[in-house]
Amino acid sequence: MTTQAHIRNFSIIAHIDHGKSTLADRLIQATGGLTEREMTSQVLDTMDIERERGITIKAQTVRLTYTAADGETYDLNLMDTPGHVDFAYEVSRSLAACEGALLVVDAAQGVEAQTLANVYQSIEHDHAIVPVINKIDLPAADPDKVRREIEDIIGIPADDAVLTSAKAGIGIDEVLEAIVRRIPPPQGDREAPLRAMLVDSWYDPYLGVVILVRVIDGAIKKGMPIRFMAAGTEHLVDRVGCMRPRIEQLAELGPGQIGFITAQIKEVAQTRVGDTITTVRNPAPTALPGFKLVQPVVFCGLFPIDAADFDKLRESIYKLRLNDASFSFEMESSAALGQGFRCGFLGLLHLEIIQERLTREYDLDLITTAPSVVYKVHLSDGREIDLHNPADMPEPTRISGIDEPWIKATLYVPDEYLGPILKLCQDRRGVQRELSYVAGRAQLVYELPLNEVVFDFYDRLKSISRGYASFDYEQIGHRPGDLVKMEIMVNGDPVDALAMIVNRDAAETRGRHMCGRLKDLIPRHLFKIPVQAAIGGKIIARETIGAMRKDVTAKCYGGDITRKKKLLEKQKKGKARMREYGNVSIPQEAFIAALKMGEE
């Protein structure tokens, strides 16, 4: 059995696309974790969607056995983490289970916004950080410049940064040696009562709930009764093991080790990430400090296009929730779209991925309503409510004020794109806090309202900067805003699925845009249809969809002109009556197109 001095727990952190998963592949290959035949690229990215998009969504762990240059054998527990801002909570809990981190920086692109965010999280956990400059075989690579950037921007020494190319397999042995030499072994007392941290949990159709744990003190053995300290539930351990990356069963997990256990648990909801696991017979006196609870940031409604698919959608959402604890939902019904779910996500990429997984894995056709954020509404009777859905907003007379969430955004921008990006931030009601130059690039710090960022800010940023700007944000609480609920009315009836909360100054522009788009999308009827945007009782924008003209005089041959006039008069009355009682059918495609994001 490996002693504590021969264990190393580390994670790989980096900005999106700087080569974390490829480096993890090479480390697994170099230590013989998988044979050449079993090896695939992005071996730790198990979901199809991760491989296709080339991003990591779920943090994965693997145990490697490495024989160092001095002949000693070490157990290396590697955690590959996501780089995208939406999955930052995956990074935070992975870092809590480690003593060190490999900071991977692209030799051509240098330090980016997400590199900074992840490295600061790592420093907060008091980690040993090993800088790795990757992609040194690229024509545009400049390792010396990147070394200076790491020292200037992050403030950690980079003289001994390891130079690698994960794709070409250069410098992998040096990385392994640096892990063994520069990352400290875990601390922990084998004789103390068991304290293990619940790092992650997922549902396996054969094993039930599988729990990833990091043992701090004591040991977990098969057949041991355990208790979750926060949940207060008790279970019997029936399997202990680790991933190499194939499942390998073990007799026990000792202090400092990372592995998985199963204990016949049926629901992932019972296993809260960050909980402390202890024994029933000799419990630990205090729990470990957990992680921050995941708070959904963006809310939107998911409705099946075919109402008959509602039960299938409900079943699929429950199954998805088993493997993604950060995704929340509750039932809601809409007059226009029928029965569906109001869902909470960590950001727009998370929303997109959940939607794509529902479409792909469960074969569902869905409509997504306009995404909105959580507003705090102060009522005139002194109460405060959280508003997730614009359709539920109280009457304006009952509201004394509305607070909206704000974020602090850090942007790294090449100099030539600075002007248009400053304008984009100003247009989105941004408040500039900092503008500095680091290694030939501008570093911008802006405070922005989250609802201005949610729609298409990221897409606009990437298109303005041709993909060179990078963006990271953190929430900084709620602030009062001059916000109003804008309703879209078709033929005088409000359509609740299209209601949105907007800033009063931008309401008219947004209203005109929405009415103009619906005018093109709703098919013509036999009568005129007004499409209006309204705030309270005030109409702020209007478009009219013209009536289809039916020629009622076609069969009127000859005779006096009064015969034609009589028929036209009759048609006019019929149209007026039809307009009073007539229902406008808005096709589902019109909803989908009207709610399409990224087309301001």
List keywords for this structure.
600 residues, Rossmann fold, Elongation Factor Tu (Ef-tu), domain 3, eight-stranded antiparallel β-sheet, six-stranded mixed β-sheet, 14 helices, elongated
Blueprint (SSEs and pairs):
Blueprint: E1 7-13, H1 20-30, H2 48-53, E2 60-67, E3 73-80, H3 88-96, E4 100-106, H4 113-124, E5 128-134, H5 143-154, E6 162-163, H6 172-182, E7 195-204, E8 208-217, E9 220-221, E10 225-228, E11 234-236, E12 239-243, E13 247-249, E14 252-253, E15 258-262, E16 276-279, E17 298-304, H7 310-323, E18 328-334, E19 338-345, H8 348-361, E20 366-368, E21 372-373, E22 375-379, E23 384-387, E24 399-414, H9 418-427, E25 431-438, E26 441-449, H10 450-454, H11 457-464, E27 470-481, E28 483-490, E29 493-494, E30 500-503, H12 504-521, E31 529-535, E32 538-545, H13 561-581, H14 588-594
Parallel strand pairs: 1-3, 1-4, 4-5, 5-6
Antiparallel strand pairs: 2-3, 7-8, 7-16, 8-15, 9-14, 10-11, 10-16, 12-13, 12-15, 17-19, 17-20, 17-21, 18-19, 22-23, 22-24, 24-26, 24-27, 25-26, 28-29, 28-30, 28-31, 31-32
Helix pairs in contact: 12-14
Beta-strand content bin: 25-35%
CATH level-four homologous superfamily name of the largest domain:
P-loop containing nucleotide triphosphate hydrolases
CATH architecture classification of the largest domain: 3-Layer(aba) Sandwich
Q: What is the CATH topology classification name of the largest domain?
A: Rossmann fold
Query: How far apart, in Å, are the first and last alpha carbons?
Result: 60 Å
Mean pLDDT: 78
Give the low-pLDDT segments: 41-46
**What is the overall shape?**
elongated
